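Data deposition worksheet. Section B asks for the primary sequence of the deposited chain exactly as it was used as input, without tags or linkers unless they were present during the calculation. Section C holds the resulting structure in token form. Section D is free text for depositor observations; keep each observation to a single sentence. Incomplete worksheets are returned to the depositor.
Section A, Depositor: J.P.
Section B:
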Amino acid sequence: MAGHGGRAQMGLREVIMLLQRFKETHPSARKADVQHEFVAKCAPIRERSVFVREGFALRFCEANTPSFSNVVLSLSALRKHDLRPMVICIVRPNRLDFRLANTTFLKRISHSSHQFRTDNIRGSFLGHDILDTYEGVPNEPEHFDKLFALHSAFTWEENVARLVEATNAIVARSTRFQVDRVAMNQLMQAPDRAMTALRTPQYREAEHHLSGIIKRHLSNILAAAELENVNIRGNTIEQIVTAGVNAHRLDDLNFELGRDLRLVVDIKTKLLDRASAPKAYNIDKMLKLLAEGGTVFGFFFIGIDVSRRSVVTRLVPVLDSTILAATRIQTHWAGRASRGVTQLTGDVTRVFERDYRPSINVAEAQTFLRQLVER
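Section C:
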């Protein structure tokens, strides 16, 4: 009994290793055999074809050819499990393959998707609808933690809207910002405006003001950091900082930095003791914002170490060199009528160090902005 109970506490990584060893020692094992081993050793809860553990959900499939075109799961069934890693175990004649199949890693809905809309969830995805790589990251077990952190930055609604467009070849209402000569001139001046902003006393006052809010509400912010749903967690903390105003826009807060210079601040929460990859911004919205005269765009980072019960804050322009190095353009999210979104998937921990001072490399920032415009 003790041995069984110990195994029942296995996490996803240990379960994958268990099943791989079982297949190695039982080469002829089919889907039913592997599935039985998992149930016997891990005692999961079964929800139709999905087996649920505290930290993940698992679906077994079988493929006897190199391709994997089987129906895997309905989108409505996936909805119940999209907030935890949804893992597909593909039982092949000579090995087991594992893939994450959360909505972020789906190309489209292929099966029975007629009349699939954002307000009419229907249809199923096939094996070949699951991405083998996501933004250059292989969809394999050793990368599951990173991939799920990337997935967690997006909501169910955002993913469904993308899948509807990809599945039905819908031409979305254009949100693409048209950059004319005047707008381009303003964009190229944005790095210099950010440098000017950093030298103003009003910038330091804005950072002090925001840090003061965090100190006054520290216990509530630490409590919110315990929430598992990354979107609910971020929205809750944002509402604390903005006194309940949470419009899901770039400009969560605005500060006047002097004559003809305005600082627009977007609040970003980063868990310092866990894998997390906050969504940065919609590219078209950001370009439109910086194309406005006298505008500087910055992130107010709230770095939370849940285990140590500590919070560190920093106000940083989005064109800061460390932030640019950590910003990745998620081409997977670029629709027919938009440039897509960015995500902070690189290392931003440097900004939370005590001696950190934001810096702008004008040429580097201008090159980055040109790349966004040309998308």
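Section D:
Residues 1-8 have pLDDT under 50 and may be disordered.
Residues 61 and 164 are 25 Å apart (CA to CA).
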